[in-house]
Amino acid sequence: MHIPRHLAVIMDGNGRWAETRCLPRIAGHRQGVRTVREIVQECQRLGVDYLTLYAFSSENWGRPDDEVSALMELLSIYLREQFDLMLEKRIRLRVIGEIERLPLPVRRVLEETVAKTDDHDGMVLTLALSYGARNEILRASRRLAARVAAGELSPDAIDEELFADSLDTNGMPDPDLLIRTSGEMRISNFLLWQIAYAEMVFTPVLWPDFGVEELHWALTEFTRRERRFGLTRDQVDRRSGEKGH
Ligand code: FPP
């Protein structure tokens, strides 16, 4: 099985999982956290270098207040209870998105966990929180524009590399594989710049029902795909031959 260096996941279907069981939506999110625990452990075990999870979008602020606060609470609990695992497995936590919009207590736990795991050399676990890709691209553009306005940067010096370095994901390789659960075939404003060449795997399985078996299925699917990055098959074969030497 080919293991992606960077796996990104749109965790979808918690609400529907709960609704079909006549449970409150938050029960679906609670079950979704169990899946997060399982998938993080399995990705770490398999040797994924970067795992990025879409945990809360900029648009999710529009959900009912009690659902938003329950999600924030679940996030804080998750970070506290998983801290020992992060220490043991040397997992490094990163966050992307407009963190300043999160409630202060959640921000504190996040910032603390990010700081305490900063020197870890294991898998990088990135949580996208209050995240929207268009917003991320705008913030990066504003930062670069400010540097141009200050006379520090010439517009011609802005290339793909510098732009990528100005995004929240700076220093991370682009995702090789994007998985979305729950049967929706949309990107929903997730990592728009970064997924230019990512393979996409969509599964009808709802996130709370997604487990190690489904992850392996998605990785097998990924392994079957041929990634050419716009080149011909011959060129790709020659390049991988060269890398092998
Ligand atoms: C999508 O399901 C899921 C979310 C909006 C939140 C994802 C959050 C978690 C899995 C729990 C907290 C996260 C971590 C990292 C501990 P939905 O509610 O949109 O489902 P629906 O489309 O069926 O309504």
Automatic annotation (TrEMBL):
Q: Record keywords: Nuclease included?
A: no
Keywords, ordered alphabetically: Magnesium, Metal-binding, Transferase
UniProt-annotated binding residues for substrate: 13-17, 25, 29, 57-59, 61, 63, 180, 186-188
Q: What class of enzyme is it?
A: transferase
Q: Which residues form the active site?
A: 12, 60
Q: Which GO terms describe its biological process?
A: polyprenol biosynthetic process
Q: What CDD domains does the database record attribute to this sequence? A: Cis_IPPS (cd00475)
Report which superkingdom the organism of origin falls in: Bacteria
Enzyme Commission number(s) of this protein: 2.5.1.-
List the SUPFAM superfamilies hit by this protein, alphabetically. Undecaprenyl diphosphate synthase
Known role: Catalyzes the condensation of isopentenyl diphosphate (IPP) with allylic pyrophosphates generating different type of terpenoids.
Protein name listed in UniProt? Isoprenyl transferase
